[in-house]
Sequence to fold (450 residues):
Amino acid sequence: MNTNPSQLESWDKEIVWHAFTQMSEYEPLIIDQAEGCTLIDIHGKRYLDGVSSLWCNVHGHRHPKIDAAIKAQVDKVSHVTNLGSSNTTTIQLAKRLTEIAPAGLEHVFFSSDGASAVEVALKMAFQYWQQRKDSKPKKTGYLAYADAYHGDTIGSVSVSGVAQFHAMFKPLLFNVQRLPSPNRDRLPEGVTPEDACKHHLDILESVLKEKHEEIAALVIEPLVQGAAGMIMQPEGYLNGVRELTKKYDVLMICDEVAVGIGRTGKMFACEHEQVEPDLLCLGKGLTGGYLPMSATLATTELWNTFLGSYADSKTFFHGHTFGGNPLSSAAAIASFDIFEEEQTLENLQPKIARLAEHLARIADHPHVGNVRQCGMMVGIELVKDRATGEQYDWTEERGMNACKHATDNGVWVRPLGNVIVLMPPLAISLDEIDQICTTVEQAIHFATAS
Fold:
């Protein structure tokens, strides 16, 4: 099909329905190529990828090892269903995941996206309690957090808490017991930073003490609530959650779709506090950001409750056409190989430090209310009045205007309301970090000038 840029832009505005985008206001940005940490649009303009193409790109675009792995897999087989059959590449990936994941997670269920991985975990948790030998049929509820984001399927939306995204669908959702966000930077009156962890764990324990007989699982984004605006949890909170869920016999689902695969400086965010959940959800960076794939890892205790004869009907009746796709599996294996060969995690520390240096300067801006960082995950919150903490009205689109200015100047970033998110590929260079942060700082000046 012969096309030119104006024709593509017209079709993009009139035919393609973009996610989380008001199409009446959409201005096309059409990427044609990419290399390393740089995106190239249909006009040949280059942009540093400041958000890893929606938090999923890990080793940069067009990494030769991942490219080669996918091409080699195409020469073998490109699709095999995992409904009652398998393929060599996906088996090898499953084994690899159980070797590097937190201890006890010895079984892997593959899906196509992060929301599906969470949906799988919710259903597994529910079914587990129903068909254990000592079943607990009252355990049908879930415990989740205010401002959480776990995806956009009905189950994952039910345990999510971002009202702006999901209020419209409230009649479709199941009830969830909701906890306040364990936010280390915004504490209730009278709570000190030293007391923050205990304060939030006390709230959790009071709910568990009263409701544990009805709760199948608690769902948490470890360390960082991503789409909530990069909200950071108090140190020690995650470990405390694990202890309390064990104490009150509630499963713990860790949603590491966003925070996993190196984003926090370790392969899994759970590792920072030596937490071993009952279910672990992965996505986004699992294939290095190349192809759709997600995974739900489960313990043997859960796995065993699904075993029996066909007539027992204990099977997990859930599946996706492209779950465990061999092309995606090949990309994921190559990505994990790169982590080892290029010492990706070991080489992150100077990059994390360089980001911190820039953020310390940006934090002094009169309209920056708070800067939050966990590894390579950053949130820069814009406020109307730094002294009082008064927020900009979200309809002013200050965050969006700052990101548009940065994009116009060669750095692709996206906001969460009035929070500017920085989450570059782990392969980003120090010079590229400098360029991203300098451009974003200038964009903040522009967006808050009046």
Observations:
- The first helix runs from residue 5 to 14.
